[in-house]
Amino acid sequence: MNVLIIPEDFRKDQYILKPLFSRLLQAIGRPRIRVEICRAPLLGGVGEALKSERIADVVRKHGGMTDIFILCIDRDGDTNRRQRLNRIESEFTDDRRVFLAEHAWEELETWVLAGLNLPSEWRWTDVRAEVSVKERYFEPLAVWRNIADARGGGRKTLGEEAARNIPAIRRKCPEDFNALAQRLETHLQSN
């Protein structure tokens, strides 16, 4: 079985999504499922990732070899984004494939932070509520850990580290990461 993760922009997001979903699938008892990141076409932002014609391009290009598509984008403070994701899911799920979509509250970097030991002066409720979590928390952590110049601005190192703690990410991000994990698990159990 093959899973294609569709980020709004793979250039940095791949370093978060690949390790998180590979470990999530191991945690739910499906370690042999192959996880790939969609690199072509490059969507280049949330606006493009929410366009049906752009998603149709991805499905056309990868449909023959993909069983499950998962679109992962940032919420960016838009509380109405879930409705659009629901429409995309229904538009692209059919009898041959499932299409899941989720928006990270507020940015994908939040999922990484949920799996890490954070500085003691940071409160998780503050991190979770921050719309600009990347600038306010993730990037300062990468600088503090001296990995800001590493792959993906530290995302590769921190993404792999966070992936070792999937239960914490599911617990700390129930509305988004865990909701997606539950829908994925339900689908895999029924197939």
What would you say this structure looks like, in words?
With 191 residues, this protein is an alpha/beta fold. It has one domain. Helix content is 53%, strand content 13%. The protein has ten helices and four strands; from the N terminus they run βαβααβαβαααααα. The chain has helices at 10-27, 46-49, 52-62, 81-92, 108-114, 124-129, 133-144, 155-163, 166-172, 174-189, and strands spanning 2-7, 34-37, 68-74, 98-104. A four-stranded parallel β-sheet has the order 2-1-3-4, with helices on both faces. Helix 5 (108-114) crosses helix 7 and helix 9 crosses helix 10. The mean pLDDT is 97.
In short:
This protein is an alpha/beta fold and 191 residues long. It is built from 10 helices and 4 strands; from the N terminus they run βαβααβαβαααααα. Helix 4 links the parallel strand 3 and strand 4.
- The quaternary state of the protein chains shown equals single chain
The geometry reads as globular
Strand order of the largest sheet: 2-1-3-4
The tally of helices reads 10
Low confidence ranges? none
What structural class do helix, strand and pairing data support?
alpha/beta
- Give the SSE string: EHEHHEHEHHHHHH
- The number of distinct structural domains comes to 1
Calculate Rg over CA atoms. Answer: 16 Å
Strand content: 5-15%
Helix content estimate: 40-55%
